[in-house]
Amino acid sequence: MNNPLQLLTPRLWSLKNSILSKNEGNKRILKPILLAGIGALFWSGIFLISIRVLSYFRGIEEIGDLLSVKLLSMMFVIFFSLLIFSGILTHLSKLYLSKDLPLVHSLPVPSHEIFISRWLEGTFDSAWMVLIYALPILISYGIVYQASLLFYAFIPMILFPMIVMASGISAVLVMAAVLLIPASRIRSLFVFFGLSVFIIIYVAFRMLRPERLVDPEAFSTIFVYLNSMRTPASPYLPSTWALDGVMGMLHGNSMDALMNLAISASGAFTIFFFQVILSDRIYFKGLSKAQSGRELFFKRKNRIRAEIRGFSGPAPAIAVKEIKTFLRDQTQWSQVFLISALVIIYIYNFKVLPLEKSPIQTVYLQNLLSFLNMGLVSFVLIAITARFAYPAVGMEKEAFWLIRSTPICLKSFLWIKFMIYFIPLLVLSEILVVATNILLKVTPFIMWLSAVTVFLMVPGIVSMGIGIGAIYPDFKSENPAQSVTSWGGLVFMMTGAVFVAAVIMLEAGPVYRLFMADLKGHGMNFIDWAWTAISFSGVLILSLSAVFFPMHLGGKRLESSEY
Known about the structure:
By secondary structure, the chain is mainly α. The protein has 20 helices and no strands. It has helices at about 1-5, 10-20, 25-60, 65-95, 100-105, 110-145, 150-180, 190-210, 220-230, 240-250, 255-290, 315-330, 335-350, 360-390, 400-405, 410-440, 445-470, 480-485, 485-520, 525-560. The longest helix is centred in the middle third of the chain and has 37 residues, at about 255-290. The two termini are about 40 Å apart.
């Protein structure tokens, strides 16, 4: 392991220099502190919610503990799936697409040792966030069930083998796929992985059938319901071994916990040595094929014309360039497939909600969920915008000087970017809102309110993505997904979340008054109408400010910069 560890030293030196550098004074220290503070808030939020949910479950007689075990089982399956998917994307980049691979492979080091170093780096990059945000959930179990101190020491011991197994499985899948699929289509592997993830997520989610947790009447008898809750997960999944180990230590059964830890550790060692042996045979072959010219996974016979009929000039040319760039970069397509999977699952969740069994009046509950759904759709939109629209300026990379040399101002360039992403994101958001409202059978007033509110919020969110992406452009990123985790990406997501929360809060009071007046058939007084007018005017002003202000700042920053 000397050579693999030695190959990791440049990464460690880079981290050390970034921490100790004093070129930017307090700014370099302020960003990590602020990021750590925001991460701590999210961590604390997950912890407090987990404590509240588990305490409520434990207060339910007979089935409370079963619900807690079922919830933890679902969480481990989700964690393991996320680790595999994140590992696939990270290992494909680290092992085959990184720019420094020719330099690294020119060193007098065996290829399998280079593979180990890259695998270690990819494992850390793909797993650290999942590990951090899994800890508050597991710690909350220990607090609610009053576990001993050994339980908290056991948590990282049982999670580490699961991470190693997920990372090893991801690396093996990547090496096998690169060897089987023509190397000229290496980037098109993202399409294959995207389709696979779409199928896996959907099938896994439906097999879990989470709606059963709130609908025990779906079973013929309570006995069948309890038996279904006791049904164990597959004994061949590493997530099941981790779950059994955690539950054994949680209930004081140390021997059972250690047995599952030993099984997990043996599985981790087996997968690690298997992937090293496999890499010694096929890794370099796949890497050699990956250096050949790129070929499209799906060939297109029809080409987009360089000019849009009826228009001419630099603006249409840049618009066509953006569309062609997206279609040619098939690494983006996997994200489209993944988003499609999430959208289908999102809509299906509303279909299976047992609203008629709720103690709350159905009409009131349906419209309440619809109003809250506006916020959920907006947060989904923020995530999609962060992935596609925010990195749009940075994706110009070293060729940005060509944009600066064109006879078009940079603000117009940003508005072209805005229009390209605004239209599809608006259509997606309206589909989500209208489809879920139809499933909820809301009143016409709530239907129109949701559609109009989302119509006002979408341009603001897209504008913030483009504008803040222009204020903090990342022209050196190899992968657009890396830009989202940067300082600018965090600023955009925080700003977008504040914008959505402000709109929902401005509308909440007047909407409640209007809905109850319509439901009970009585009118509203002058104060209520004045409040409604002021609130909706505030929403309109806030939405217009969110559209124009970020674009102005982004264009001004690009014009004054030396990029």
